[in-house]
Specification:
single chain, about 210 residues, alpha+beta, 2 domains, two-stranded antiparallel sheet, about 30% helix, elongated
Length: about 210
Amino acid sequence: MKTMMKGFTLIELMIVVAIIGILAAIAIPNFVKFQARSKQSEAKANLKAMFTAEKAFSAEKDRFTALIGEAGFSPERNNRYAYYTGVAGTQTDRTTAVEKPTVGGTDQAVQFDSFKYTDTKVFDPAVLNKAPIVICGGTKLPGLGVSPVDGVTPIWTGAAVGQVDSDKAVDNWSISTDNRTLTGTCDQIGPNPSGEPANEHNDVNQTT
């Protein structure tokens, strides 16, 4: 006597597929956001290294510097962010396999690694390799680089501009030797102690 083997009906299979689709629709956007947030750790780590280099230079020379080479700051390659210790100088070129600092040591920025990140629609050199305006207010309203405040107590502010997802918006960070209160159009507002990276424009939550 033959036993009848029962399988799933088409309706049951369609229900399972629909449930999987709903779960994927909920999970994928959250995963993309978590992935973008993890990429922001590069900016935070390198800005803290930049701050440490500036403080060490200041302790030895009794002044701050806007020059990358003089401060001794050099982030590892494969950087998604461009880094700025000042605004007026040249930039260390990272468009080829071999890094090209500008002759004369005038660099005040390190470009993002366009040798690795070649999609110019996402990683736009005209945007990422352009020194940002520091929009977050401080008690002394610092600009990028060394800002003489009262002629006696200068402060230093550095920045990072990068891309952590696939939209056109960019991720902006800053760090300062000043104790700042972040205000205005910043995504991050409130007290920002000296040496703590501030996320001025959070690309994770932006599309433009």
